[in-house]
Amino acid sequence: MDARSPEAPGGRALRDVAENLFQELQEHFQALTATLNLRMEEMGGRIEDLQKNVNDLMAQAGIDSPAQKH
């Protein structure tokens, strides 16, 4: 008997366990992806703030910022 057939002893239970495991892994992956996206957005905002602060400091010091030269 093929282990993949529904009549195989434990075949359905094994498939159900595998499907449940896959579902859990997929949920964890989606949660991780959402967390990473949020953190990347936060980091992008922090980098933009840092760039603005550096440009402001350079302007106060009378130094042309590289962005102004282009």
Automatic annotation (TrEMBL):
GO terms for molecular function: transcription corepressor activity. It holds the Pfam family HSBP1. Keywords: Coiled coil. GO terms for cellular component: cytosol; nucleus. InterPro entries: HS1-bd. The keyword Coiled coil applies. GO terms for biological process: cellular heat acclimation. Gene3D superfamilies: 1.20.5.430. It comes from the Eukaryota. Transmembrane segments: none annotated. Belongs to the HSBP1 family. This is Heat shock factor-binding protein 1-like protein 1. It comes from Bos taurus (Bovine).
